[in-house]
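Hi, here's the filled form for the chain we discussed.

Project: internal
Contact: R.S.
Residues: 202
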Amino acid sequence: MSTQLRLYSVSLATLDDFVRPTNTWLAEEARARASAIDAEGYVNASRTVAEAVEDILHDRPKDPDAGNAYGHAWEIVIDQLESKRFDFGPMRLGAQFLDEASQELRDLGVPGDLTPLGFMYQSPFTGTPYPSDLPAIGHLPGKQTAGLLTSYQAITERLRNPDHAALARTIITAAEEVVHFNEFADGMEDDIPYCDLVTFYS
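And the returned structure, exactly as it came back:
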């Protein structure tokens, strides 16, 4: 089975302004997209994606047995914010591929916490459960993204596996978007929240 990685440049600081049931447009759009995913029938868990969206919108306790329903629900919300998305995949044997790519990156000097497996298990959504064996939701804070970008740019041409190099280039493209936005925010007089790098895997 093939998997995909989606990376977003997004300001998580804006979530409180948007993730509320009173935000009628976002809530209705989120419900419609969740129902469409549920209709496909491949999310088999104790909660449907539509129910997971309601848990998020109403800030309700999250079901620890919900599998990746919350991963899909959070991606629906993130995708509706002023975010930019970058895709990589499909990946055959995705978890193994990410492990091997992370190992090659480490061998070339990339710090472990900046490899895909170093940040793809770091969900920014406190209290949201997801499968421990699946990097369903990942996160790298904006202030760390410049370091990732520098590290990857220094070694991408030395990656022996062309698929690992393609993954690194996709991550670089997403990181560049994060860094460029944050540099723009630094240059503004108003206090503009930084963007972070957020990933979804399924």
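Let me know if anything looks off before we file it.
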